């Protein structure tokens, strides 16, 4: 990439770091808020991650000082960046501060399918750039970052995994500089797509986005700590004591989601985790589901399992003989015996060297969005639900909003069909726009006022 003075040549920081900080200060939807002290700038954002990253760039001297609409471009923004010398410096000598004006001509907002957001920006030196940030599952694809080598993508993925295991929320940044002609061509194509309607508009925007968000060069990987609020562990424990099963449905990557679940006490340190993740084929997901079920069954006494199954069979047979079951439901009920027996089977009591009983072994299940589309297939979803109900708790990661709602519906319909009377009452708790579908699907929707907007609270039955 051609370097220029906009990257802060002459600064105490390396050029590549200055380039990264500049992109961080440009690729977002953050708005500035005026402060009493002109040296201080505060930010407003619907995404706490974006706010934290922009604040981080400011800490190192690349300060987003102003955001205003661009009157010459529909939907455009005019951003002012100040470059202040020194980490954490508040330059009282205005001669040490340089101010640069950038024009964001288009913002391709984040969505759960593309898993990224992108801006098209004119830089003050007359160059034209595309800056993008998002999930590694999308930005590390060869088509997205064709200007980076396999080795660079490999190293980036290693950093993403490292940050995720530490419980950090990760983003990958990428960029490219293009010619004036290509920039205006892409911009015009996007504007024409936005003027269309219905399915034609969707297809045109998808094609435009694909052209804009391809051929990038990897820039950096970031990790933001999403600290747990005080009392989370105690809250989860009280819910468990009350007999409530707690599942976590999140858009975070697997490593981050597992680390946070462990920190929150959702997963215990001694818990055995079964993982149905990264399944690109139905057969692979099915194999993992049935292997996990068999492994759990092997942990139970055969006698205890047989006794539980026999008890259920007798109960159902009594219902059939007494005419309590309608003929149209007999096959369905008898066909669910294996599922019911597996859910209700008795755990084996283990003993230590002194003969004292040890606690039952705990199991957790981790499922990602890629695999979920397979396990929700009609031919596999009963076995998958069986597995979910055979473990202590479930963590679903990298889910889209639609998939979150689909998991809620799976439990509502699945357990409603396999149990007498009413099924379970499901409450969904969320604080962001990505949780709205889940909240609407649940029997009880609970929205939490937070830093990610009020979509969740507006859709909920209860707002906290």
From TrEMBL:
Q: Does the keyword Signal apply?
A: yes
One MF annotation (Gene Ontology) recorded for this entry = ATPase-coupled intramembrane lipid transporter activity
Q: Which UniProt keywords apply?
A: Signal
Q: Which residues form the signal peptide?
A: 1-32
CC annotations in GO: endoplasmic reticulum; plasma membrane
Question: Which Gene Ontology BP terms does the record give?
Answer: phospholipid translocation
Q: Which InterPro entries match?
A: ATPase_P-typ_cyto_dom_N, HAD-like_sf, HAD_sf
Q: Does Signal appear among the keywords?
A: yes
The name of this protein is Phospholipid-translocating ATPase
Source organism per UniProt = Clonorchis sinensis (Chinese liver fluke)
